[in-house]
Amino acid sequence: MRVTFGLAMVVAMGAVSALPLTAQSLCDLVPESVVQSTLGVTTPLTATPNTEGGNGCDYKGMAAGPIWIKADDTDYSGIYKTIQDQQFTHLPYGAKLVAGVGDKAYYSESHGENIAGYQLSYSKQALVFVAKGKIISFIFMLLNQGASKESILALGKYTLAKPIETLKMPN
């Protein structure tokens, strides 16, 4: 019994230490491997923290052209709350409210986008949601038709299941 209890404690302590008490950025909570597999991106991605205005993460890869996914978080308070509430009242062009991702969320997509210097067609997709006192936004620039709406919503739900409330705004 004593060996079993000791082993259980070691396993439990290891599982607890796997998640940071305070995540530094969305890169800590949503690794590039999860982004790749959830969206069906076959090109390897690198994740780089982006703390300009929040604790976001830039996921980048190179296929026939650049692949870029920007994830950002901001506290849902003060002026950020006011701006976001206005955006939910007057949705960006082409955006639609979606259920099941946080307290409120919208999704948008446009196809046939071009990036200077590349003769390729891109899709720009976005998912923005409010939950756990945070505003989380994902912007996707993916080749051709992009990712399915369902996979983007699945990435949002994955993110929502993580302790996003531990993300602290940079000083």
What does this structure look like?
The protein has 171 residues and is α+β, with helices and mostly antiparallel strands. It has a single domain, classed as Protein Transport Mog1p, Chain A (3-Layer(aba) Sandwich), CATH 3.40.1000. It has five helices and seven strands. The chain has a seven-stranded antiparallel β-sheet, with helices on both faces. A hairpin with a 3-residue loop joins strand 2 and strand 3. Helix 3 runs antiparallel to helix 5.
> What overall form do the CA principal axes indicate?
globular
- What is the topology, as strand order, of the major beta sheet? 1-2-3-7-6-5-4
CATH architectural arrangement:
3-Layer(aba) Sandwich
Outline the biggest β-sheet: 7 strands, antiparallel
Instruction: Provide the domain count.
Output: 1
Structural class: alpha+beta
Rg over alpha carbons: 18 Å
Helix-strand pattern, N to C? HHHEEEHEEEEH
What's the average pLDDT? 83
DSSP E strands, number:
7
Q: What is the straight-line distance between the termini? A: 49 Å
Helix content: 25-40%
As for the CATH topology, it is Protein Transport Mog1p, Chain A
The parts where pLDDT drops under 50 for at least 5 residues are: 1-17
Using the coordinates above, name the CATH class: Alpha Beta
- SS element count, helices: 5
Query: How much strand content do the residues show?
Result: 25-35%
Task: Provide a concise account of the structure shown.
With 171 residues, the protein is of the alpha+beta class. 30% of the residues lie in helices and 32% in strands.
